[in-house]
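TODO from last week: model Replication restart protein PriA.
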Amino acid sequence: MVPFAQVALPLPLRHTFTYRVPDALSARIEPGVPVEVPFRGRARRGVVVEWTATSDREDALDLSAVLGPPLFDAHLLQLTRWMAEYYLAPWGEVLAAALPGGPSGMPASRGRKSAAGIEERALALPLPEPFTLTPEQRAASHALETSVRRRAFAPILLHGVTASGKTEVYLRGAAAARDTGGQTLVLVPEVALGSQLVREFRRRFRNRVGVLHSYLGIAERRRNWELARRGALDVVVGARSAVFAPLPKLRLIVVDEEHEPAYKQNEQLRYHGRDTAVRRAQMLGIAVVLGSATPSLESLANARRGKYAHLVLSRRVDRRPMPQVRIVDLRREGGTSQLSLPLRAALAERLARGEQVVLFLNRRGHSHHVQCRACGFVPRCPWCDIALTLHLVPRAWRCHYCDHDAAAAAACPACGSRLLRYSGAGTQRAERELRATVPAARLLRLDTDVARAGGTDEVLERFGSGAADVLLGTQMVAKGLDFPRVTLVGVLDADVALHLPDFRAAERTFQLLVQVSGRSGRGSRAGEVLVQTSTPEHPAIAAAVAHDDRAFVERELAERKEAGYPPHARLVTLLFSGADALEVERAATRAAEMLRQEAESAGVRVLGPAPQPLARLRGKHRWHVMLKGPRGAEVRRHAARALDWAESTERPRGVRVVADVDPVDVL
Ligand SMILES: [Zn+2]
Ligand SMILES: [Zn+2]
């Protein structure tokens, strides 16, 4: 009997392929090995996921080559299979994404590089006691250590205000894992080598910590990958894709800043790193701790339902007070300056005292919402409760969930003012204004342009060393930075995030304001936060100012329930893209029509089709259809029908269709 192998190929087809295994190769075939196979007249690389003694595919072709030892163990095959099923993605694409360096990490025919010559000195280090734990830290550490030792699935939400010492709790959990011979995986939204978290883990675990960093280059990442796989690392720290790190003795997973949208990958394989981490912990029967000062509503809902344990750190370490937050009402300021008079005054005061200032420009992606500068009015969709987006051709305000449209007014429908503006000025304009206002201040800018050029660590390092007075940046400055000399944080426009056409806009705004406020007053001097806004009465802003997350969460959960959004419902968006605008629109329309009747009779609503806010991106036209319903499996089942159609022989020509399960960023 000739055995057959099931091979997952990184192609946009959601099934595996059967190949015959030649006798000469059969000794080296096992699940997880990379292979080369002929596919439609071309040589393709894929991964064997299963092998069987028989097959009904009599015409199966022969496997061409085995490219090396297994890349995936049984557990990682199981995890990636779950992802393929859950995220409605081809298994081969999931496996490709799981390699260090992504799809390009697949070994070539000549075989993979050996990892010889890597030192494996185990250092037994005592755990230093840098300071006394707060009673809350002690209780949380104890609970986490107990869960790690118990070796059963234990999802834990660690809900600690900014500067409450969550890192110390993670470190103790990791030490408990290490002491029982286990490994810890630490996921962070973005790896900043200079971040406090990486520094602390390195200090405690020395060379038993491996950092998986995209700037490291593929050789270095593969080396750490190999060390992790051989059990030579106690702790692996990395961003989203580190969730795939091969850790044979994994005992604890930490997801820091679990609410961060950066955990969701929005291209190629659309998966959520946090949710995948929780599933991985469940499969292995281990502890997973999700840490945040501002947990996502999904995680809070899980804690309320008793699915997650809920550990709370309500106080800052060293009895430091929470920063004082003040509102600057832009409606009373007039003009279009990004620096109000109160902010200018506060800025001058800090500079005179030699203290540092962080200025935050809340700009994410492209903002196209309209807001009245006089009264704060923003047009919203009456059906979907999200901000309407300005479209230029034809000129209209449109909802990009359901395609509802309204005539674009020249004057404010609420107050008649003609100060309707299109929101969202960039960091560069803010920088020019700052330089003109405080010419003597030493200024650093941190935004996506700087990050793309690889300058993030350098900017943070210079600011941390006191080489600058003011750090101006986008949401990157809100994340986990710890600069004791910062006593003023200014939020230049809190409304930009609030009116993104996204049902999570209020949650995101609340989180950003709390996080960015948390950068102030982390040292011995008290901190202050100034929030510039045209809608100070909005619940997200009012709650952030009052440090009252309970009030905000209650209200927001009730509104999500009312409008049928997560965590009370599940969403899948189907994304259509292609070069021909008409074909893309036609495919989206056909898919929506095909799904609607059967889906809606099963309680799944089909919204759209609608053009995406950035309908044309890199020469591609983009439309989407949104499915929502109370049960995730049911919503995914209907989305899968559309994908089956898109993969069938009657598929639309020149249009790519992909699913985004549990979408996070719908721009
Ligand atoms: Zn108005
Ligand atoms: Zn709508």
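Done. Residues 135-317 form a domain with the Rossmann fold fold (CATH 3.40.50.300).
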